[in-house]
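Q: I have 349 residues here and want to know how they pack in 3D. Can you give me a structure?
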Amino acid sequence: MLRLGHIELDAPFVQAALSGYSDLPMRQVARAYGVPFALNEVMLDKLVVTPGKKQKSILTITDDDHPVGGQLMGANPDDFAHAARAMADAGYDAIDINFGCPVKKVLGRCRGGFLLSQPDAALDIVRRVYDAVGETHPVLVKMRRGMDDSLKSRRDFFTILDGAFEIGVSAVTVHGRTVKQRYVGPSNWSFLAEVKKHVDDRIIIGSGDIFSAEAAMRMLDKTGVDGVSIARGCIGNPWIFEECRTLYTGKPLPPPPSIEHQRDAIAQHFALAVDHYGADKGFKVMRKFGIKYSEHHPCARDVRNAFIAVKSCEDFDHVLSQWYDLLKSWPAVRRREGHGDLIAAGATE
C-alpha cells in the first residue's frame, strides 16, 4: 500500500504528469488497466485561475477519474496558492508542485526545474500551497536531483527536500536525472536510494527509466523507494500498470498485449478522446498516441506510418480495421523495448 496523506493506494504505482499527454482520456484508459493514482498534465498556475475554455477543461474532473492529482508549475507564490485552491475546489484529490521540468523555455521563465536553484523561492511556494489546501488535500512535490552535479545543487536539493517535508508535504517524487541532463544518460537510481535513506519513513516516489513492469520492480527493490512514477513508459502502453500489479503480487509476467488487446485499448482511447475533444480535435490528439501504440505491433513501422498519415476520424478507424484486423494472421507480438534516452515529443515529466 502507498499512502499519500489520507489517500491510500492498493499498489505503489503512479501515472506521472506528462505535458501534452496525461489528459482525461489517457487517465481513463490507464485506470481501466489498473493505475491506482494518476496526475493531470502539468498546468501553469495562471491558466488555472484565468477564465476561459482552458480553465474549464483543466477544472473538469469526472466521477471515474479518482484519485487524481493536479500538477502546477509557475513562478509566483501567490498564483500557486490561488491555483491550488481552485483545483482542490474543482475536485482534484491532491496537488503536486512541479520543480522538475527541464525544458529550456520553462527554465527561462523561472519555472519548473529552475526553482531547484532557488531554495527560498521554492519553499515559499510549497508553504503557500500547503497553507491554501494542505489541511484537506495532500500536497506533493516533484523534483529532479538538482540543477547539475555541483555541490551547490546537491545542497539546494536537500534544503528543498527537507524543508518541504517540514512544511507538511505528503510525498516527494524524485527523478534521478539533473535538470541539465534533461533526458540524456541513465537516471541515477543510487541517488534515489540515498534520498530514501535520508528521509527514513517519509514517502519518496522514484522516477526515471521506467519503461517496463520489470524496471518498476527493480526500482522498488534496489532503491527502497515507497512508490514508482511511470512517465514516458506508459504513453501508448496502459498495460504496464496491469503488468506492474501482476509482478507486485508475485505472479509471473503476462504475455505482451495481443493484437486484440491492442485494438481494444486503442479503440477505447479513441472513443474517449472524441467524446472529450470532439471529432475535429479528437483524431489529431489520438494521432500522437497512435504512434506510441504502434510500437507494440509486430509491423510497428508500417503501423506508425499509417497513424502519422491520419487526417480524419475515418482515417483513424481505417488504421484500426486494417492493422488490427483480428481475422488476419499476424506475426507474433513481442514486448516493446524501452529506451531511456528517447523522448516522446512534448512529454515532460
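Q: Anything worth noting?
A: The first helix runs from residue 24 to 32. Residues 118 and 314 are 50 Å apart (CA to CA).
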